[in-house]
Every structure is written in structure tokens, then in C-alpha cells.
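Revision sheet: C-alpha cells.
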Amino acid sequence: MTFDLLTIFGLFASSLIGISLGLIGGGGSILTVPVLVYLFKVEPVMATAYSLFIVGLSSLVGAFPKYKSGMIDLKTALVFGVPSIIAVFITRKILVPNIPDTLLEIGGVLVTKALAMMILFAGLMVAASVSMIRDKKAEQTANAEPRVFNFPLILLEGLVVGVLTGLVGAGGGFLIIPALVMLSKLPMKQAVGTSLLIIAAKSLIGFTGDVSENAAQMDWVLLAVVTVLAIVGIFIGNKLSKKIDGAALKKGFGWFVLVMGIYIIIKELAFPGTSAH
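Predicted:
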């Protein structure tokens, strides 16, 4: 790992990933791939693999205090998590390696595997930003309803989130938390804690599929440094969360993620193939 201005920005941004997770209970993982691709110049497909490990381990650390304070529903985590874990493992082990490097050509522009993944990721960022910005009244209303498990929908959502996580390396908390509130009728705080455990399990198990195939090509020093900084960020975020209004901060962060998502779409479409060396 060489130290230049971009790397220094990358190290700072790595801590922000964890701070966001600790401060607002999610959203940080959506920054991991852009940080790796644009600041550390990691190839996009490899960046999604790195992201699974960074997000998984950071979420696992964040889940411990939630579990100790009773903020994790293990039954829901199992029902949602098992199909999600299976989906992410199959996606990383079978689907991603078999996607061709060049998908198609549009108007003389080659649509590569890396370009498609970055566009999909940017679309997910835009969706995540909308989830963070919009009013949460519907979710709060769901909390007042009696606990009833909608098993078919929970299983389906678990599979969808697992495939998306496998493809782009993001934790998908912005998809999981509303699903847990709406479909499992969990209170918001318990949904956040349960989401962290699900994200940790599916991300780390998904990463094992990449290790078996790409261990020799991985930059383990970079992976360790970014992961440690993200974990340190979680503890900082947890401390700050007691002093800062998380709801207002979440909306502000949502607007930032929206701008980043739009920027990535424009950059990748206007200058394809410039993401990493």
C-alpha cells in the first residue's frame, strides 16, 4: 500500500464507514466500494469482495453491544438470515465468477462486468439515499401492530438482499431494516440490531467464497487497515450517537449518498474503464 493524497483521503473515509454505522445504525457500508475503487484504486469486482469482509466484520463488532442490551431478535435473524446467507454465498461462488468480462456493446461502448457492477452499485446507493431521506411514518405505524411473521415475504426479501449483497458487496441494511419492521413487526431499535447480525453473517460467509478463489490476488494489508479503521469508527460513532440527533444526521447523510450515487453513474457512463488501475 503506497501513501499518496488519495490514500490519505481513503484512510479518513474508511473511519467514516464505521462512524456512520455506529452513529445512525447503517448506511456506512454503501460507502465501502466507492472508497476502495476511487481512493484505493481497487478493481471493482475485487472491491465488492473486500467490502464483504469489511462490512461483515464491522457489523459483527457493532452487533455485540446490541445483543448484550437485548436489541437482537435471534428468531427473526435466523428466518431472514438463512436464505440471505445461501443467496450471497451462491452469488459470490457461482454467479459472479461466471459473469463474462464483456457483457455487450452499446453505441460503440463496451459494457464490461466492472462497469455493470458499478452502475448497479450506484443505483443501490440512490435507493439507499431515498430510504434514508424519506419520512419513516409507515415504519413507525408498523411498530404498533401485533407481531405476525410474514414468512413467504421474509424469505423472498432475504433471497433478494442476499443476491444484491453478493453482487455489489453492500450490507443492504437500508433494505433489511424496513423489511424487519414491516414484515416481522420488530421495533425500530431491535430491527437495527438484528440487521447488524444478519449483515455480519451473510457478508462474512459470502467473503469465504472469494477467499478460496482469489486469496493470492488480495491485498491483505489494505484489507486489514481499512477494516480496523472502520471498526474504530464504529466505537467513535457509538459515543457520538449519545450527543447527536441521529434522525437529522441520517437525512443529511442520505443526501450525501444520493449525490455520490449520481456522481458514480455519470462518471462510469462518461468515462468507462477509469475506476481502477
